[in-house]
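Bench notes, bay 3.
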Amino acid sequence: MPLLAGLDLGTTKLTAIAFDPVRGDVVGRTALPNEANITSATDRALGRSEWDANQIISRGFDCLRSLLRDLGPRRHELAAIGVTGQQH
């Protein structure tokens, strides 16, 4: 049975989840802190926000690797991944 996964690239953490769409069961999940904010204190005081896109991508892959480890032998059942992100 194929599994589906989602990856959310959030501002405070990156979260990945895998579930069985037939049974509706969550079969794996992981989250890592998003440490890609590179906004200086001066810019932050002005209401600005700057992020290191390469670091977000790298941490997203770290999150997916962790999810695959959690899935163990079921990782081969993963059929699709959806990605979301909401930055300022």
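Next record in the batch:
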Amino acid sequence: ADDSNAKVTEDQVVELSVKLADHWEKLAPKFGIADDKLAEIKAKEEGNEAKCLELLKQWQEIEGDGATKDEMIYILEGLKLAQCIEGVF
């Protein structure tokens, strides 16, 4: 079944946060995260993986049903980071 339109799952979000940890700040604007929210994540979360995970959760919240694998891949391709997540989806 073609599930490219499927929403990103909790497990995948955790996996993505590990793989994208070092790039989390680059992702924030593409995910539509507001500056104040970004500052909050920076201040609150420890370590890049935790920050990235929080960012991904925010993205899911903002996008709702639009938080799909396709959308994630599209965003990452725009940042030339798609190769980072090979094997996740």
